[in-house]
């Protein structure tokens, strides 16, 4: 019953709008001395609304369109409200009936096509929505919105080839640069090719991505992974280290793979010096922990304890404290050992329950890196969290 009442409140504003419009048309012409009467269909529709029969009310309002095409805006508003409420089937019925009317002018039909396309997208009928937006593009109307929705469709379908084509056209129509987004589309293709072992395609996609965005961190990471797979370790190191100049926020993503590269070349000493440079310039707990780990291996745990303890005085983080406790535990006994063990459990819980990445656009929290935010769908906005609880 509550759903029907809610629906009643939805239709009443539409009915009132229709009544206002018809009332405006009721006038006495002084010249012709004639009277335009209210369409009886309007009263019939109101009766269905008041008797909580929304489907019949919809049919009446649709029939009213056949009498006079000037009711188009009312029907568009009604369909839009249905879609926003999640009543997409009803929105589709209304918009389909609008498009079928031969009395619509070119702009009215284009507007109805946009609304129907949005209905189809909301329903997951992406192929039908694509057809309508392509029709709008061909007609040269609502180009900006048509290309925007087509871009969304191709991203959902992971059709990166068409996404790139449409993004370039949308740039022209909107006047806004989409180069960083287009670079991400090429990276999507590069990742797929890397998984398939198609290194020639990987190189081509990376080159294209870089041509659209020289600061594309993802392109550098994929290129480095490719070089690692084919045994070109020195080139992999070069690609990984490029990230520092592209966006230092992503240094955390290169530390572990860089260590693997330097170890393979038996150049860990060089890597240690590079880590010291990064820690001094940027900080970052991931870099600090890797450096501490290597100091422990090469100089012993006491040296590691002194090093990380000094660093934490300047840059305190939960992860850093957790690692310091881990080293200290092995050297403690009795009651002190038990206290440290309890604290270690608490820091471990804080780390495990904490999102290490956050979208700078919508605030979405994540435990792993996403190049397209799962929340707002924006590209290249998810970054490592910094501060006491993060990096």
Q: Can you tell me the overall shape?
A: elongated
> Strand sequence of the main sheet, in spatial order?
2-1-3
Strand/helix succession: HHHHHHHHHHHHHHHHHHHEEE
Helix/sheet category: mainly alpha
* DSSP strand tally: 3
> Mean pLDDT score, rounded?
81
* Helix content bin: over 70%
Low-confidence parts:
1-5, 15-36
Structure in a nutshell:
This protein has 391 residues and is mostly helical. Helices cover 72% and strands 2% of the residues.
Protein model, in words:
- The protein has helices spanning 2-25, 40-50, 54-67, 72-85, 88-100, 106-123, 126-139, 143-156, 160-174, 179-196, 199-212, 217-229, 233-246, 255-264, 268-282, 285-299, 301-314, 318-329, 334-352, and strands at 357-359, 365-366, 382-384.
- The chain is mostly helical and 391 residues long.
- It is built from 19 helices and three strands.
- The longest helix has 24 residues, at 2-25.
- A three-stranded antiparallel sheet has the order 2-1-3, with no helix packed on it.
- The model is unreliable at 1-5 and 15-36 (pLDDT under 50).
- The chain starts with a helix and ends in a 7-residue tail after the last strand.
- Among the domains are: 2-123, Serine Threonine Protein Phosphatase 5, Tetratricopeptide repeat (Alpha Horseshoe), CATH 1.25.40; 354-391.
- 72% of the residues lie in helices and 2% in strands.
- The relative contact order is 0.04.
- The radius of gyration is 31 Å and the shape is elongated.
């Amino acid at each position: 019953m509550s759903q029907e009442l809610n629906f009643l409140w939805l239709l009443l504003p539409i009915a009132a709008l229709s009544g206002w419009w018809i009332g405006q048309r009721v006038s006495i012409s002084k010249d012709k001395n004639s009277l335009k009467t209210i369409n009886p269909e309007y009263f019939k529709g109101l009766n269905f609304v008041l008797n909580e029969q929304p489907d019949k009310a919809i049919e009446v309002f649709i029939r009213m369109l056949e009498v006079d095409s000037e009711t188009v805006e009312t029907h568009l508003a009604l369909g839009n409200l249905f879609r926003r409420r999640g009543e997409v089937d009803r929105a589709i019925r209304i918009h389909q009936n609008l498009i079928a009317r031969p009395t619509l002018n070119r702009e009215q039909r284009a507007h109805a096509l946009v609304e129907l396309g949005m209905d189809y997208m909301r329903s997951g009928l992406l192929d039908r929505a694509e057809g309508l937006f392509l029709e709008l593009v061909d007609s040269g109307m609502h180009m900006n919105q048509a290309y925007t929705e087509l871009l969304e469709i191709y991203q959902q379908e992971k059709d990166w080839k068409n996404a790139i084509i449409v993004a370039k056209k949308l740039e022209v129509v909107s006047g806004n640069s989409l180069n960083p987004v287009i670079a991400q589309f090429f990276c999507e293709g590069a990742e797929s090719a890397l998984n398939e072992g198609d290194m020639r395609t990987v190189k081509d996609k990376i080159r294209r991505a870089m041509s659209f965005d020289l600061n594309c961190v993802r392109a550098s990471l994929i290129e480095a992974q490719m070089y690692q797979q084919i045994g070109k370790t020195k080139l992999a190191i070069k690609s990984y280290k490029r990230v520092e100049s592209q966006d230092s926020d992503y240094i955390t993503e290169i530390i572990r793979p860089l260590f693997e590269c330097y170890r393979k070349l038996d150049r860990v000493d060089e890597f240690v010096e590079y880590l010291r440079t990064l820690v001094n310039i940027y900080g970052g707990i991931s870099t600090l922990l890797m450096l501490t780990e290597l100091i422990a291996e090469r100089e012993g745990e006491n040296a590691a304890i002194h090093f990380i303890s000094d660093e934490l005085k300047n840059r305190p983080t939960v992860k850093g404290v957790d690692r310091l406790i881990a080293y200290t535990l092995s050297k403690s006994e009795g009651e002190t050992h038990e206290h440290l063990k309890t604290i270690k459990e608490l820091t471990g819980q804080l780390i495990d329950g904490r999102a290490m990445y956050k979208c700078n656009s919508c605030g979405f929290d994540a435990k792993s890196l996403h190049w397209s935010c799962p929340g707002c769908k924006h590209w290249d906005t998810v970054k490592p969290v910094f501060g006491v609880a993060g990096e």
